[in-house]
Write a structure and sequence with these properties.
With 132 residues, this protein is α/β, with parallel strands linked by helices. The protein is 24% helix and 37% strand. It contains two helices and eight strands, in the order H-H-E-E-E-E-E-E-E-E. The longest helix is centred in the first third of the chain and has 23 residues, at 2-24.
């Protein structure tokens, strides 16, 4: 009788522990990745004068994806930053402060970044020409 009880107890334990192990090893990450969508790319850089390499403040930068636009202005050190889940876009740069720090011609930069399954950062410096 004890042999039957031991076998029964062993089979119950193997069923319980087997189900715990199988649920603990389930590919939960794959489901989360499919739900979250494509990983984002962080686009950052500085706006610079093409001739002097000095940074330029107060340049409006627009990230254009299809017909959607997201705009920021370059900071006092010329820095800007965007976040996008898309890899094909255009960055448009326009001088918005008039002649305060020089007059600069508008610049459009079409970009196509490689696909990646991970988040990553890319540095893109925008070089602008003076108007004159």
């Amino acid at each position: 009788m004890t042999e039957k009880v031991r076998k029964w107890f062993t089979s119950i334990l193997s069923i319980l522990f087997g189900s715990v192990i199988s649920t603990a090893c389930a590919p939960v990450i794959a489901y989360a990745a499919a739900y979250m969508g494509p990983p984002e790319v962080y686009i950052k850089g500085k706006v610079k004068d093409i001739d002097t390499a000095q940074t330029i403040a107060d340049i409006r930068l627009s990230l254009i994806i299809n017909s959607n636009t997201n705009s920021v202005s370059s900071g006092t050190n010329g820095a800007y930053e965007f976040i996008s889940p898309y890899r094909n876009f255009t960055i448009a740069a326009v001088d918005i402060d008039g002649s305060t720090n020089g007059l600069y011609l508008p610049t459009n930069i079409p970009l196509s970044l490689p696909d990646s399954p991970y988040y990553y950062t890319t540095n893109i410096d925008i070089l602008m020409k003076t108007n004159g």
